[in-house]
Amino acid sequence: QSETSDKSSAESDSETEVEQVSVYHKLLATLKTSPESESEEDESEPERAEESETEMDSEGSQETGEAGGGQEDKNDVPDQEEATDTAEQSLGQEQADGADTSRDPSHGVIEEFTDVKHESEFSLETNFMEEESGGCNADKRDGNSSQAFSEDPFKQHMDKELEEKEVEEMSTLPKTSSQSKWSRLGQLTFSSTLEKHKTLKADKEVDVKQLYLHKPLESTWPKVNKQFLSSVNKPSDPSFTPLQRELFCIMNTYRDLFYPERNALTNGEEIRHAYCLHALNHVLKANAQVLSNNAKRRDQKPGTDNDDYRDQGLTRPKVLMIVPFRECALRIVHIFISLLEVSDKRKIDVSNKKRFKGEFGSDPEEKPPNLKRPEDYEAVFAGNIDDHFRIGVAILQKSMRLYAPFYSSDIIIASPLGMRTIIGAEGEKKRDFDFLSSIEILIIDQADIYLMQNWEHVLHLMKHINLLPLDSHGVDFSRVRMLNLNNWSKYYRQTLLFSALQDPQINSVFNKHCFNYVGQVAVRNVPLRGSISHVVVQLPHVFRRLEVENLTSVIDTRFQFFIDKVLPEYRDAIMSHTLIYVPSYFDYVRLRNYFKKEELNFTHICEYTKKAGVCRARRFFLKGEKQFLLFTERFHFYKRYTIKGIRNLIFYELPTYSHFYSEICNMMKATDNGVDATWTCTVLYSKYDAQKLAAVVGIDRTAQMLQSKKNVHLFVTGEN
Question: UTP25 C-terminal domain location, by residue (predicted)?
């Protein structure tokens, strides 16, 4: 199926790109809002779709083979001010994902298969706890005992009754924070409004029997996690890696967690296993509590007060897992199945498993064999990389139901785009977000990839989570927890955020959209050595500082500084073969329009450029027929082509991913002719780029560069 095409097969799928993008545009065009739309991001959607179509048309005009530098795009965006900074992030994987054939362009949602046959089997209302299934360790000791309540983190977190005064404090008072250093995670920042400087200490050793894992996780986890364990692990800690132990120690206290050092090559899978264990443990405990109370209610005398059995939310979904690609969802479901199967003889019943593998799996033969990409690229874009999906998962004792209707699901696994198209926008008739009302654990994995897709989808989701539902959806209000009835769900929601990097937009979500009463934990390590140490070509690096008054003026100041101070130095023909690396599509459109107006000899490549246009631009640039090449970061993220012929390099802004800095610089060694001494690299930065700067040059140099107002010249000779 077309949506399973691998992004690394860019060379072979370009012929279908126009059709794929047009389907995507139809989808985006349906996300229109009414005039009284409450959010700017929603109002900008139609503009984005229009601008994207204009851009696609203009890139298509390159097919005529015109060779004029800035003349080839007759229908380009006429005014750069129409673009927004996140403008074309809306087409995160436009040309390579393939169109999802199940989309209905008339209303922009997926015509989904949902499993309606197994509704009664997986109903929480009509089922009871099986005797042999037991509960977690706490239940064995007597689930109602005060000791069990005080020790089991799940009960401790969900059964705490907040007072109105505490809720008011959380919404008005600033958080207090404290620092701590853990052996594996490093520097941690604990922040909370209610818990005054209650710093958590890492468990040096973890006994799996003391974690209050629900049956069967206590026995299955060590086997499932065995692949990550080495002989170095202590006999007393046989089931967790050092990283997993410290992460799970935080997760199990139900604090919010931000971990910005996820690496698809090294620790990505062990992190995925750790949060899957936590999510499944939470769901099994919550469902066991409901089933146990069902039995108690069935056995009690008529007329007895039922207020003791408040054990659920306003809607059933408890865990929302946001991941970028279908392959990620596939791996998560496989982990769940492994954790639920006690032995090879006791397989669990998984409904619709074959269909799931067909829609979320990938065909290894589809991948072209001769494409060489960096290891991190291969790790991120492995398997089925379609980014438009959502699936409900229901778990009941020894069975799992895939494609469960959302209101009958315990866990929802989705991409940001999959969520965006069902949540919809203000004024749309067909939209739904009631199922997000009682989410108790939100997991956002690989958050950095959403910066390359469309970050506004993440913000849109955060605005619609834990709101009071518009419909009752058949809930028994006598069983609903008071925290949900009081609309305090967001104060109990745990958010786990994993990213490959620190970024202001990701930080903002963690700081402004996480309200957990227990508090937040953020890993805040500073890079001692930057990615500049991985530049292998001898190259002078000139860092030119912009003086800006405030954050809002950075974009305009950078553009003016570039055309007044930087560009004039490169207009001379001797400064040919100049690549300009532009992270923001907004800036790219603005620069492209300026270059055309000034009739500069340039070509350009962005994430919407078709294969023929890319080949032509690369050829013109290599031969020196075009002096400048405008090059977007998102093109590099999705394609990773080596651009040959670079002699002069300008980073219009520091790259989002620090290793892109050394990757782009090292492209110069692919240039056979040309003298090393003539190569140059210029970087524009401001005081607001501290995080990105530190990731490139290291923390010590960053401190010096931010204190000094002079340009900084660095000469790097290989691995130094």
Answer: 531-715
Question: How many other CB atoms are there within 10 angstroms of residue 33's CB atom?
Answer: 19
Which of 275, 257, 692 has the alpha carbon at shortest distance from 505? 692
What value does the CA radius of gyration of the chain take, rounded to a whole number of Å?
Answer: 27
Tens digit of each residue's pLDDT (9 = 90 or more) over 632-648: 999 999 999 999 999 99
Q: Taken in order 452, 453, 456, 459, is the CA torsion positive or negative?
A: negative
How many Å apart are CA 337 and CA 357, to the nearest integer? 13
Q: Return the pLDDT at 150.
A: 58
From 384, 385, 461, select the one nearest 417 (Cα to Cα): 461
C-alpha angle 154-248-253 in degrees, rounded to nearest 5 = 35
410 HSE (CA, 13 A, CB side): 25
CA-nearest of 211, 284, 393 to 225 is 211
The reported pTM is 0.82
Residue count (the chain): 720
In this predicted model, what pLDDT tens digit does every residue of 404-460 receive, in sequence order?
999 999 999 999 999 999 999 988 888 999 999 999 999 999 999 999 999 999 999
Tell me what pLDDT residue 576 has.
84
CA distance 80 to 17: 25
CATH number of 153-194+211-297+310-365+374-425+432-469+476-523: 3.40.50.300
φ, ψ dihedrals at 324, nearest 5°:
-80, -30
276, 226, 215, 217: which is closest to 251 by C-alpha?
276
pLDDT higher for 140 or 395? 395
Amino acid at 460: H
What ranges do the domains of the chain cover? 153-194+211-297+310-365+374-425+432-469+476-523, 531-717
In the block, tokens 């590099």 appear at 636
Give, for 379, the enclosing helix (H) or strand (E): helix 375-380
- For residue 713, give both structure tokens: 């010249």
Among residues 628, 626, 606, the alpha carbon closest in space to that of 60 is found at: 606
The 10s digit of each residue's pLDDT in 464-474 is 999 999 998 88
